[in-house]
Amino acid sequence: MGSVRGVLLDVDGTLVNSNDAHAHAWVKAFAEHGIDVAFEDVRRLIGMGGDKVLDKLAGLREDDPKAKQISGRRREIFKQEYLPSLKPFPKARDLLSAMRSRGLRLVAASSAKKDELKGLLAVVGAEDLLEEQTSSDDAEESKPDPDIVAAALKKIGLPAGDVVMIGDTPYDVEAAGRAKVPTIALTCGGWGREDLEGAVAIFADPADLLENLDESPLGRSSA
Q1: What range defines the domain where residue 102 resides?
Q2: Which of 36, 69, 85 is the endpoint of a domain?
Q3: Which of 29, 80, 83, 171 could pair with 143 in a Cys bridge, judged by C-beta atoms 3.0 to 4.6 Å apart?
Q4: pLDDT tens across 95-149, in order?
Q5: Pairing state between β 6-9 and 132-134
Q6: Could you give the CA distance from residue 168 to residue 152 in angstroms, rounded to a whole number?
Q7: Does the residue 147 lie in any domain?
């Protein structure tokens, strides 16, 4: 890797401790529509786009009316029951501030819907530190397809070789890799190091990355 000028940031499970909450919201939404799914089965898919979760767990295509109902209800449950009590991972905002102080340009690259992403970034207090935001609304295909990463690259206005993705799931690593962007992975989202194969570096959480910023790929940042 050469010097880094920009960072694409996943949010759920990377900056905010929200992956379990998303899984619980899915389980409840499915149950309300007569579909019984295990928490563990949903949890391993968190990080994928909701359209892919619906297909893998219930065989429902995104344009199916029932899929739209479940997806909409899942968003309501998440925003009403879980979002108000979510917490950022330790030092999440401090990490963003440190990267900004190095001249790095920051863009959110999330599979969340735009309205959810706004609430999640508020949990971190990150709105003033990000140049741009991309959500599932900006991409035709969701993670692990590379569309969201490609949309974030377009907004940041930098080539893939000058950018690093920070994420927490295999789907972040795959999506970024398909867009030719290297990934720094964090295990705080619930995935083990063995699940994050392909990342150029792996840290425990934002605090761990912040503590080791000089030794990380971001230590080669170039304003």
Answers
A1: 6-17+86-220
A2: 85
A3: 171
A4: 999 999 999 999 999 988 888 999 999 999 998 999 999 988 888 898 999 999 9
A5: unpaired
A6: 17
A7: yes
